[in-house]
Structures are given as structure tokens and as C-alpha cells.
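Figure 6 in text form: structure in, sequence out.
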């Protein structure tokens, strides 16, 4: 099971390239290094199961999570490309895709975001992040966040499955969000829906989460 990960949230202009590269090294290349170690032996034995903790953000980017989402998109693309070859050797690959999970990991990301310096971005973007995004994110985590124990139970079901799924989403509340991309290949439906949710209906969103 690959579960290493670090988070990052905030305006892109405020993130250093070094921090971005460090995140990618952990979230993506950490997985690549692990798979390179275990896959050859699994192929020789013609059996094995690699379980990767991904994220719903590997399917759908979320505003102000640009780099974190990019790392999870990389994870998803890597595994999607590798799974067909792996199946030839009777090796299963499964992506577990949680939504928000209430842990110290997320709390630390948001604490750092609240203390960060946003002078490198424009005032409007800084206000959108600090006064809109952070507030709504706390409501989302409080209302829809899963516990680590819940994610562990989902992961165990994937491990014990007779025919392991390639993808397993742990929070049904996020299934419609991921489905928007497939409903409209142009991306217009998805981007329009998220724009309205963030900038026009944020009050309705917060009320619905309480």
C-alpha cells in the first residue's frame, strides 16, 4: 500500500518551485520508486496487488489546489498506463480515491495556509483564498470529511476483493463532481458548475453543509 503524501493549498504565485518539486517528489516519485522496487518480483511470481491511496483530486482539480491536484493526476495517469501491462502478469493495481479526510495532515495544510504571506499575489486573489476558499473548505471538511478509520475500511475491502477494482471512490458525495468531466468532453459543464459554486452560490453551499 502506497500512502505517502504531502499537501499544498493557496494561490499559485505564492508557492515556490522548490516546494512544488518537493511535493511532487513525495506524492508522485515516491510512488514510482516504490513500484519500481516491488513490481519486478510480482511479475516474476505472476501475482500481486499494488494499492495506491490517491484522491478525488486525481480525477477533478479543485481551485487553489493546483500543485497537489497535479501530483494526484500524475499518480492516476501513471497507474492507468501501468495497469494493463501489470494485468498481463496477474498483478492488480487499485487506486483508492478519498474526498476530504479529517486528519492532522489536512489541519496542518490549512493552518499553514492561514499564516502564509500572500503579498506575491494580487489583493483580490488573496481575499478569494482567505475569505472564501478557506472558510468554505472548513465547512466541507466538517460536513463531508471522512475519518482515517473509514478510509482504512475502504482500503481493506479493496485489498480483500476477489477481483480488485482499478478505482474505488470512498465518498459518494463526490461521484457527481467527478462525473461532470465525462458528461461533457469540452469541459464547459464542469468549469461552469464549479465557477458558479465558488463565486455565485457559495452562501447556498455553506448553508447546505450545516
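Output sequence:
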Amino acid at each position: 500500500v502506497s500512502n505517502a503524501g504531502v499537501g499544498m493549498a493557496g494561490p499559485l504565485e505564492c508557492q515556490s518551485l522548490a516546494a512544488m518539486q518537493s511535493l511532487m517528489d513525495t506524492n508522485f516519485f515516491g510512488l514510482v520508486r516504490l513500484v519500481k522496487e516491488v513490481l519486478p518480483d510480482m511479475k516474476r511470481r505472476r501475482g500481486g496487488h499494488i494499492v495506491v491511496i490517491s484522491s478525488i483530486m486525481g480525477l477533478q482539480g479543485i481551485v487553489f489546489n493546483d500543485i497537489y491536484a497535479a501530483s494526484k493526476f500524475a499518480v492516476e495517469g501513471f497507474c492507468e498506463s501501468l495497469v494493463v501491462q501489470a494485468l498481463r502478469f496477474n498483478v492488480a493495481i487499485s487506486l483508492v480515491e478519498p474526498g476530504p479526510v479529517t486528519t492532522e495532515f489536512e489541519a496542518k495544510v490549512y493552518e499553514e495556509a492561514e499564516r502564509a504571506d500572500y503579498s506575491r499575489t494580487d489583493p483580490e486573489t488573496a481575499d478569494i483564498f482567505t475569505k472564501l476558499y478557506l472558510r468554505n473548505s472548513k465547512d466541507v471538511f466538517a460536513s463531508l470529511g471522512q475519518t482515517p478509520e473509514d478510509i482504512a475500511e475502504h482500503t481493506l475491502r479493496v485489498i480483500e476483493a476477489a477481483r480488485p477494482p482499478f478505482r474505488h471512490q470512498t465518498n459518494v458525495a463526490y461521484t457527481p463532481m467527478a462525473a461532470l468531466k465525462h458528461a461533457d468532453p469540452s469541459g464547459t459543464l464542469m468549469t461552469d458548475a464549479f465557477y458558479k459554486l465558488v463565486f455565485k452560490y457559495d452562501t447556498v453551499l455553506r448553508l447546505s453543509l450545516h
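Caption detail: The chain has a mean pLDDT of 88.
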